[in-house]
UniProtKB/TrEMBL annotation, chain A:
This is Phosphoribosylformylglycinamidine synthase subunit PurS. It catalyses: N(2)-formyl-N(1)-(5-phospho-beta-D-ribosyl)glycinamide + L-glutamine + ATP + H2O = 2-formamido-N(1)-(5-O-phospho-beta-D-ribosyl)acetamidine + L-glutamate + ADP + phosphate + H(+). One of its GO terms (molecular function) is phosphoribosylformylglycinamidine synthase activity. It is an enzyme of class 6 (ligase). It comes from Nocardioides cremeus.
TrEMBL record, chain B:
Pathway: Purine metabolism; IMP biosynthesis via de novo pathway; 5-amino-1-(5-phospho-D-ribosyl)imidazole from N(2)-formyl-N(1)-(5-phospho-D-ribosyl)glycinamide: step 1/2. Transmembrane segments: none annotated. CDD domains: GATase1_FGAR_AT. Pfam families: GATase_5. HAMAP family: PurQ. The keyword Membrane does not apply. The active site is at residues 85, 194, 196. Gene3D superfamilies: 3.40.50.880. Part of the FGAM synthase complex composed of 1 PurL, 1 PurQ and 2 PurS subunits. It catalyses: L-glutamine + H2O = L-glutamate + NH4(+); N(2)-formyl-N(1)-(5-phospho-beta-D-ribosyl)glycinamide + L-glutamine + ATP + H2O = 2-formamido-N(1)-(5-O-phospho-beta-D-ribosyl)acetamidine + L-glutamate + ADP + phosphate + H(+). Keywords: ATP-binding, Cytoplasm, Glutamine amidotransferase, Hydrolase, Ligase, Nucleotide-binding, Purine biosynthesis. The keyword Ubl conjugation does not apply. This is Phosphoribosylformylglycinamidine synthase subunit PurQ.
Length: 87, 222
């Protein structure tokens, strides 16, 4: 079954306290060289049938309506090859 | 007046809000998230809590509950709506109010008596206060940082839509110390602090919050 992935990220100008907490933890754990961390959300949508442009447009509407808040977040939609196909 | 208080799964402060409504001289009507029914109320309070477990984003699921369809329609017709804390988040997610609320900049849950300045007093929820009046009410939130883009913030300031501002201490990183905003018309007000917890001297930090619940009565009698 095809999988459509929606990534939701806080807009660059919006403060991301969770990302900052992760960034702050890295040097304490001995990881150096990371200068910034932003934390977002990844949604995996299993869709029925072929992933057509109409399906992608529909998923974009889902992302815009529910999965993200356009005031503070951006999203991207992409198709991911299913595990079954790869196997 | 009949003021409805909506209970969502995960609401915490609905009973306190009902009590505050009664202490303010109004009749409290319990409303249920799952019903397309406002039961003939004159105004609605969306209380604090963690509706739908704050899943996805605070208020993001509640916004699509059956009762919210009615609340949004009534608000657009001019019905007074007050959203407190989680209720404020729901109003922002519903696009009834501009901006959004994000995790506190210091990343910790905050619970304190908070000083506020009431800036807009021509709303049905704040008319009992005088402009510039400072009050102390309970504040408790984990995601109370008010954000909006600069143009929106400038517009809110210019149009007088900032209802209340934090004074002395900004508890959550809210831009321009904003604690509460209204829509253009002024009938919809969102507030992060909890006036409903500050209505009785026995159990709260005083009674400064009562004005939010007496304003409607005063507006009718005036």
């Amino acid at each position: 079954m095809p999988r459509v992935v929606v990534d939701v990220m806080p807009k660059p100008e919006i403060l991301d306290p969770q990302g900052k907490a992760v960034l702050g933890a890295l040097p304490r754990l001995g990881f150096t060289g990371v200068s910034d961390v932003r934390q977002g959300k990844r949604f995996e949508l299993e869709v029925e049938g072929e992933v057509t442009d109409d399906v992608l447009a529909e998923v974009s509407r889902v992302a815009e309506t529910l999965l993200s808040n356009p005031v503070i977040e951006n999203f991207t939609v992409r198709v991911e090859e299913s595990v079954e196909v790869r196997a | 007046m009949k003021i409805g208080v909506v209970t969502f799964p995960g609401s915490l402060d609905d009973v306190d809000a009902q009590r505050a409504v009664r202490l303010g001289g109004n009749e409290a009507v319990a409303l249920w998230h799952g019903e397309h029914d406002l039961k003939g109320v004159d105004a609605v309070v969306l209380p604090g809590g963690f509706s739908y477990g704050d899943y996805l984003r605070c208020g993001a699921i509640s916004r699509f509950s059956p009762v919210m369809a009615e609340v949004v329609e009534a608000a657009q017709r001019g019905m007074p709506v007050l959203g407190i804390c989680n209720g404020f988040q729901i109003l922002c997610e519903s696009h009834l109010l501009p901006g959004a609320l994000i995790r506190n900049d210091h990343r910790k849950f905050v619970c304190r008596d908070q000083r506020l300045r009431i800036e807009r007093t021509d709303t049905p929820w704040t008319s009992a206060y005088s402009a510039g009046q400072e009050i102390t009410v309970v504040l408790k939130n984990g995601e109370g940082g008010y954000v909006a883009d600069e143009a929106t913030l400038d517009r809110l300031e210019g149009e007088g839509q900032v209802v209340a501002r934090y004074v002395e201490h900004n508890p959550n990183g809210s831009l321009r110390d904003i604690a509460g905003v209204s829509n253009e018309r002024g009938n919809v007000v969102g507030l992060m602090p909890h006036p409903e917890h500050s209505v009785e001297s026995l159990t709260g930090s005083g009674t400064d919050g009562l004005g939010f619940f007496t304003s409607l009565v005063e507006a009718v009698l005036a």
